[in-house]
Amino acid sequence: MGANATQAADDSRYKEGRSEDEFRQYDAAAVPGVAQFYRHNHEQMTVDYVLRKEAEYFGLTRGQKSIWEAAEFLNALVDESDPDTDLTQTDHLLQTSEAMRRDGLPRWMILTGFLHDLGKCLCLWGEPQWGVVGDTYPVGCAWSEHIVFHEYFAGNPDRNVPEYQTKYGIYEPNCGLETVHMSFGHDGYIAEVMKPYLPDEALYMLRFHSFYPWHKHGAYDHLCNDKDRAMLEWVLKFNKYDLYSKGHAKPNLAELKPYYDDLFAEFLPAKVAW
């Protein structure tokens, strides 16, 4: 291995066998690229932007793809917001779903583990990474201090809209997270894609798996209803597999593919609308 390759290996975010407290270490000095990503996200993720992108993509007009086609399409992407891995997206999806499978979780949940990041294909349709990946949060109300790199919201134009800076903003108390406009990204998009096929528990996992201010810190409970609070248990159950499986061994796709062929066929049509 040459010097440059050795350096690349040393700098890789992928570390097999990491302990849980080594994940999600957001430090602007240690990971400046991730900090810059969140600066772009927080300065440009406005209510107007979110509404425009929901209208553009939630109608699912981007054609039909099988799940394998979507995964292969996505493999060109390395998530700039993630300090924990730079494996292919398919590798990460399989790490997540295989960890669930080893623990004997329901097949619909194993499927959800594989599907959860496929919405990142938005990047390959020309969307900037800051508008697709990273932690999510509601727009149209005050930003929680628990949002990572919260200080970067100082440059967001919505700071100058008084209604958006109140506790409830454009929402009603306990309106339910399903009625809230989240920062646009792959989570909400893949939930829209899978809405016809999966149970509510799975759709919550998809839509809110990056909503760390809520499921890690308890923020925004004032917008939640009883359904959200009941579903939180499932999001938390899912999230440990999404995050901590990044330290597991790289999966062998050729060996695993027959199992996933059967799994996809059980729940999904041969091709789905994107």
UniProtKB/TrEMBL annotation:
Principal localisation: cytoplasm
Location(s), subcellular: Cytoplasm
InterPro entries from the UniProt entry: Inositol_oxygenase
Residue stretches of biased makeup (Basic and acidic residues): 10-20
Region annotated Disordered, chain positions: 1-20
Top-level taxon in the UniProt lineage: Bacteria
GO cellular component: cytoplasm
Keywords annotated in UniProt: Cytoplasm, Iron, Metal-binding, Oxidoreductase
Gene Ontology process terms (BP): inositol catabolic process
Cofactor(s) essential for the protein: Fe cation
Alphabetical list of Gene3D superfamilies matching this protein: Hypothetical protein af1432
GO function term, MF aspect, one: iron ion binding
Signal peptide coordinates: none
Name this polypeptide is given: Inositol oxygenase
